Amino acid sequence: MIRSRFQFPIGMSRDAGVNLHLHRHNFRFPPCLTTVRRHPTVSLLRFSPITPKLLLRHRFKSNTNFIPMASAANNPTDNTHVENPGSDDLRPTTPEQRTLAWPEMALLWIGLVVGVPAYYLAGSLVDLGMAWWQGIATVVAANAVTLIALILTGHPGTKYGISFPVFARSSFGIHGAHIPTLLRALIGCGWYGIETWIAGEAIFLLLPESIKNSSFSQVLPWLGTSPLAFTCFLAFWVVQLASVWKGMDGIRKLETISAPILVFLTMGLLIWSCVRAGGFGHMLSLNSKLSSSEFWALFFPSLTANISFWATLALNIPDFTRYAKSQKDQIIGQLGLPVFMGAFTFVGVAVTSSTGVIFGHIISNPIDLLGHIGGFATKVLAIFGIILATVTTNVAANVVAPANALVNLSPSYFTFTRGALLTAVIGIVFQPWRLLSSSESFVYTWLVGYSALLGPIGGVMVADYYFLRKRELIVEDLYSSSPTGAYYYSGGFNLTAVAALVVGVLPVIPGFLEKVKIVSKVPEVFTVIYGNAWFISSFIAGFCYWGLSVLLKRRKVSSCLGPQL
């Protein structure tokens, strides 16, 4: 038995006895264990009560949410001794910065949910043939799944005060974290362009008819849109940058102020459609245009698309939960997503259905709906609501993650503001007017397509944090580029995580190529995989990462520690 090899003083714990034994006998850690920190409040080594294997186990005695640094043992909330933080934007938040209670987290979701894409997504389900209740049920089910992902990935943000780029270092490596953060940033840039284009369309509606009918409104084939529409897009693009100039503090104030205004305007739109359509009887009487087999063939891709709608936030939610007061606040606050998304979906479906009565045909695009609403004052008020909803969604959902990713990429050059500016520039390159050309291209090409990238990233990070690390991180090493750091892996890259990411994406590629018409036909199994891209890719990547990590860790521990004791 392994206990017979050590004699511990009476009353001394096994962990303390092992450490004392190693100290007396001048035990030298093998290279694979040089990342262990000599910390007065840490039990460095612990023997498993089940097997005689030596396990690494970092057990912090602090009862605070913030894990103490090695140089701050007597002050667990002091994060001023972080090694090489790179930028103030990436430092762990201090207790004074953690001011978000659950009502403020819920208000954040109002600003995020109330927007044209969310309305358009709900209305497009009815447009594609679903009954009103099927569309709402699909959205609510998808957001319930997304809520689980949000709470899981939001936990380390609140516990350690770290942002998404820093959290990604624990699983992908100090340098490898650039891969998931830049992929997330790229998709955020695309969304930024989409939201900005939508607001630009609203501005276009306010222009005089003489200008809208001029030669400047003619579509240029090489551009894909008209110079006039592109100018409106650029005008809002410039104005919107002012909202992110003050960083996260400015974004938080904007979300808090705008939330009640957006609720008021949303209720106004619902009441308008109810009065004009003579109630919701028409909506309630609408039946599905789909057969049972057609519905299920549409349901799962639609479920994936709705999950993908918030899959971006599900990854970088630590950027917000790091400011939460407690885990309770971040969890209760996150419940705002399915609640408010369900309510706003009802508004979107109700208004979309009522347009069939009011105008004789379904109008799922709210911008097109504005063109049919009479009265200049009504138009101005509605356009104000769209612009406000666009700004609140855009700056919170599509600027924070890309900006932080760029700061993480080059802390010496990028600040949050510079990162936000580059995000806006790349948003133009995405040519959002092409992505919004139809419901199918928006839902099944854009949303489902990028879920194949975000799903595997989330799968790897969740598997690493919950199943391998048991929610314990060494915050000091998250900011250290030392080769002896716990998250340095191989040259700063965790090749296991990168391999799992690639394996998770590969099965989705054939279906995507068929969807964008690069290939004409693929086997049916790949079409099914593509329709469920987020679920399948995240599970494959998470399982592969967990399995490979456990296998490699067992081999490494047995080879390194076997001869030492």
UniProtKB/TrEMBL annotation:
Coiled-coil ranges from the UniProt annotation: none
Keywords in alphabetical order: Membrane, Transmembrane, Transmembrane helix
Keyword field contains Transmembrane helix: yes
Membrane topology field: Multi-pass membrane protein
Chain segments annotated as transmembrane: 106-126, 132-153, 185-207, 219-245, 257-275, 295-315, 335-359, 380-401, 413-430, 442-467, 487-513, 525-548
Pfam families: Transp_cyt_pur (PF02133)
Name this protein carries in UniProt: Purine-uracil permease NCS1-like
Organism: Cucurbita maxima
Origin organism lineage: Eukaryota, Viridiplantae, Streptophyta, Embryophyta, Tracheophyta
Gene name per UniProt: LOC111498292
